[in-house]
Inverse folding.
């Protein structure tokens, strides 16, 4: 016997799939997978580097609390210093001004230009007061004071010094030279240099 409670029209209805929603779902799955892959690659490629925890001015010594680690993606191509080298930089000097939060670069921190107890002075020397041979930075020299006639000034003893910047010829025929001397004699050297009463002597070690 035929069941008359279900009409032929009702029996022929089938659920229809919405093709647009299917495509949107597939696209969302693809984008989610792509985002996960990008995130994983970014995290996997990140490195821990050093950043500055406070503003440090040129010449200041680096303390243990002045630097800290930060994660940085390797794809940025920034010249940085690995975080595990922090201990190596403590006690060294800032070679440039470092703003708070900036990344530490290999060229921004290094050995101080001057050790404690020493001063750097610029000398302007006339011909005959400086050797014409090469005097590269780091060369040990002696500064010999000149005695002037009847001025009542004593010449004093020779003063050890180190060439800080190699000599350069000036347009007036004189020579400029930067030297490093002990703080205790820096004022004396400055006065002698201003009076043109210094001769630079290079001696065999």
């Amino acid at each position: 016997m035929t069941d008359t409670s279900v009409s032929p029209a009702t029996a022929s209805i089938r659920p229809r799939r919405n093709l647009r929603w299917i495509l949107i779902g597939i696209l969302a799955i693809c984008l989610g997978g792509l985002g996960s892959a990008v995130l994983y690659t970014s995290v996997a490629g990140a490195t821990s580097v050093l950043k500055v925890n406070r503003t440090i001015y040129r010449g200041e010594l680096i303390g243990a609390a002045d630097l800290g680690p930060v994660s940085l993606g390797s794809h940025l191509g920034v010249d940085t210093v690995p975080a595990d080298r922090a201990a190596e930089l403590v006690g060294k000097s800032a070679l440039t001004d470092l703003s708070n939060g900036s990344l530490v670069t290999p060229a921004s921190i290094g050995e101080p230009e001057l050790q404690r107890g020493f001063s750097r002075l610029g000398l302007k020397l006339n011909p005959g007061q400086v050797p014409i041979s090469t005097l590269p930075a780091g060369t040990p020299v002696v500064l010999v004071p000149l005695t002037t006639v009847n001025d009542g000034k004593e010449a004093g003893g020779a003063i050890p010094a180190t060439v800080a910047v190699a000599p350069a010829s000036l347009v007036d025929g004189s020579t400029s030279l930067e030297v490093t001397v002990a703080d205790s004699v820096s004022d004396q050297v400055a006065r002698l240099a201003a009076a043109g009463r210094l001769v630079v002597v290079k001696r065999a070690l």
